[in-house]
Amino acid sequence: MTCEMSKLPLCVILLAGILPAQDSPATKRLKARFPEYEKRITKVSPHVYVATGYTVSSTAMIVGEDGVVIVDPGQAVPGSREIRAEFAKITDKPVRAIVYTHGHGDHTGGAAAFLDPGRNVQVWARANYGSEDARNAETGIQSARPVNTQGFDLPPEQRMGIGIAMPPNRRPPGNMMRDGASSNNDAPQRRAQPVEPTNTFSEERHKLSTAGLDLELVAAPGETDDHLYVWYPAERVVFAGDNLYRSWPNVYPLRGTARRSVRDWIDSYTKMIGEDPLHAVGGHSTPFVGDGKEVLTAHRDALQYVYEQTIAGASNFKTPDELVATIHLPEEWAKRDDLGDYYGSVESTIRDIYAQDLGWFDGDPLNLHRESPQQQSERMAGLLGGVDSLMTKARAALAGDDPVGAAQLAQHAMRLRPEDQAPKLLLADALAVIGERTFNAPARNYTLAYSNMLRREAGAN
């Protein structure tokens, strides 16, 4: 595709390695999050400190009488060593215990940084620790997507991190990534040998007394079935793990994984709210200091609203596409930046609720008798007068600032002429526009990475 920057607004994108002349509103809002990625230690309460920006996840330290407890030791040893060095400036008390809020590697991979030879450190988790990885392993599918949703196969100028806690110019070492996903092209370092839990609990609530601290570990399925939260009643701090961060919850990860129950997530919010917390520490991004209960309530109520609206709409025979078009957050939640679609999204939540409770069939009888993609493309070409006409219409759509229409038409042409590079490049151009204008980070990353993949296949870069 060629274009004149003065005449064609859609050319303000990344094309063939050319930086955009002007960011879309989505890109501007994502970039406004960059200060959230800076390395910092936040004092949450008299004895609680939280490190963010050192690894993709947050790491908390609770200071007791004769030691400290670490909640989620981080993603990988190098970054976690930095965190420990910063914590040592606050106290030189030894680590007595480590708590994993769940089994994702970005919250456990740095544990070795907090262990010392000869010192017995308890490592706590729920009894079903690692259940998500176990279920995923049963399928034998490590990745069912041709490109990455986390942005780790994007060049730095395109990468927006994951929208919650990773700068665009930094990559997790080795194959450590958010949500336990793995990178296919990051091989310089590998994860340290995992530190397995030494202590587990199977009951709903377990009291942990160590280092002069009285804590409660509470089962809280949500992002994973093995999830827990840590309640520190003395200072009213709840450590929510990945059930809370400054984004709409990631109810359905685009990379694919074991299903996440929306109803469980709502119930876990309710349990945390019931503790009457003053502060809330999430799994990614800076903690909520002084407004923990209010934030948890907003997240619970907004998710409950989307769930109820989806079920009500489905009961009135609306399809997922119709539900997405009609369900919108009320202003009180829509205006909250901490409920923005940075990582999870309202749309993907609606679609996953429908899939969880009703399955794949949306009630449209034609979806019981679908043509193959090849047949659909042949029909479209026949209606428009052949593949050449498809390409003409696709180029016109892109020139008219309709990248989605252009992408759909170019995809039909690509199916019908798989050896022709022109449809592939046109689809890549359209996806580049769509991706740059997409706010949700995983959807954006996947779209841009797919565009780049098409270019490589066409020999364009």
Molecular structure report:
With 461 residues, the chain is of the alpha/beta class. 36% of the residues lie in helices and 14% in strands. The chain has helices spanning 25-31, 77-88, 105-108, 131-139, 262-274, 292-315, 320-326, 331-334, 346-358, 373-384, 387-399, 403-416, 421-436, 441-457, and strands at 40-45, 48-52, 59-63, 68-71, 95-99, 122-126, 199-201, 205-210, 213-219, 228-232, 237-245, 279-284. Strands 1-2-3-4-5-6-7 form a seven-stranded mixed sheet, with helices on one face. A five-stranded mixed sheet has the order 8-9-10-11-12, with helices on one face. Helix 4 links the parallel strand 6 (122-126) and strand 7 (199-201). Helix 13 (421-436) runs antiparallel to helix 14 (441-457). The longest helix has 24 residues, at 292-315. It is elongated, with a radius of gyration of 24 Å. The chain starts with 24 loop residues before the first helix and ends with a helix. Residues 1-19 and 171-190 have low confidence and may be disordered.
In short:
The chain has 14 helices and 12 strands. The chain is an alpha/beta fold.
What's the arrangement of secondary structure elements?
Elements: H1 25-31, E1 40-45, E2 48-52, E3 59-63, E4 68-71, H2 77-88, E5 95-99, H3 105-108, E6 122-126, H4 131-139, E7 199-201, E8 205-210, E9 213-219, E10 228-232, E11 237-245, H5 262-274, E12 279-284, H6 292-315, H7 320-326, H8 331-334, H9 346-358, H10 373-384, H11 387-399, H12 403-416, H13 421-436, H14 441-457
Parallel strand pairs: 4-5, 5-6, 6-7, 11-12
Antiparallel strand pairs: 1-2, 2-3, 3-4, 8-9, 9-10, 10-11
Helix pairs in contact: 5-6, 6-9, 7-9, 10-12, 11-12, 12-13, 13-14
